[in-house]
Task: inverse folding
């Protein structure tokens, strides 16, 4: 029998203290994530233009999306951008991480140099590359003239614009992949490499049998975050190409921006946002379902 019925058990006090400590995080998540998502879903079934009250239209906005050529082009360009950016970024980040995973006085300098673009603002980096690609005063055309080659309209050419944006994005983001891969390399026991050396394994054999299998969790993390970030690409597209030429570089988020803040079709843009959210969830779920999460790592 409890002699002091008014006195709380230590477990109850600990639970209340824990809930009180995590409440701010859940409150911020609800206010800035859950509630906005609910509002966007509501607006997606309305005809809302910021100047009048929302009018319920049901699934009309969603039906119109699948006949909207610009939106379908944005989906295709987003997928192309994701494929062209993500895998070279991961490969380059892994290559640089392996090369810089050693002890030397200059290694911190090289690591800083590779990571520095990632901490810069995307707007600033887009402006820098906009100058590099400038057809009249850009660095690339200046180099071409120096070697006697003909200049190019880099961002004005429909066949080259997306590739130019992809190169810029890879350059800016590979430093982040490098840092994450470096953290993964530090978790690999050195005894594995020592045992492999005793067995006569060379650098390539060590990489394929030890380094790569042990980096599966790190690669999986970068793959998921990279896909989510690629689906939300906007700044460099808006600054460098504006979605052109001929909509060759427009993306889903760029289309959402145009419909919402240039055409003031908030309900239609909200439907685009819901489709993008569902698409991201499905792709991420498929990766978690069929991708290697690194839980059972075997070293050959």
Result:
């Amino acid at each position: 029998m409890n002699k002091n019925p008014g006195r709380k058990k230590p477990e109850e006090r600990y639970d209340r203290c824990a809930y009180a400590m995590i409440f701010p995080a859940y409150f911020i998540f609800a206010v800035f994530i859950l509630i906005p998502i609910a509002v966007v879903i509501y607006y997606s079934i309305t005809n809302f233009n910021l100047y009048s009250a929302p009018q319920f239209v049901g699934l009309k906005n969603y039906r119109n999306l699948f006949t909207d050529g610009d939106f379908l082009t944005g989906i295709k360009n987003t997928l192309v951008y994701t494929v062209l950016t993500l895998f070279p970024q991961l490969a380059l980040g892994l290559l640089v991480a392996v090369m810089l995973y050693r002890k030397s006085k200059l290694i911190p300098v090289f690591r800083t140099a590779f990571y520095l673009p990632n901490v810069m603002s995307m707007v600033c980096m887009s402006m820098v590359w906009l100058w590099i690609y400038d057809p009249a005063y850009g660095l690339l055309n200046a180099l071409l003239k120096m070697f006697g080659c003909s200049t190019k309209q880099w961002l004005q050419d429909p066949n080259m614009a997306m590739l130019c944006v992809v190169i810029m994005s890879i350059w800016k983001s590979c430093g982040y992949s490098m840092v994450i891969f470096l953290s993964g390399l530090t978790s690999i026991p050195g005894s594995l490499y020592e045992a492999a050396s005793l067995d006569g394994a060379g650098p390539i054999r060590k990489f394929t049998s030890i380094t790569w299998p042990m980096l599966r969790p790190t690669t999986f993390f970068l793959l998921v975050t990279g896909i989510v970030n690629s689906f939300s690409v906007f700044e460099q597209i808006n600054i460098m190409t504006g979605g052109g030429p001929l909509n060759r570089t427009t993306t889903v988020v760029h289309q959402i921006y145009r419909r919402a803040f240039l055409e003031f079709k908030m309900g239609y843009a909200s439907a685009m946002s819901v489709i993008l959210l569902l698409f991201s969830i499905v792709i991420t779920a498929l990766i978690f379902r069929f991708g290697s999460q690194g839980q059972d790592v075997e070293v050959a």
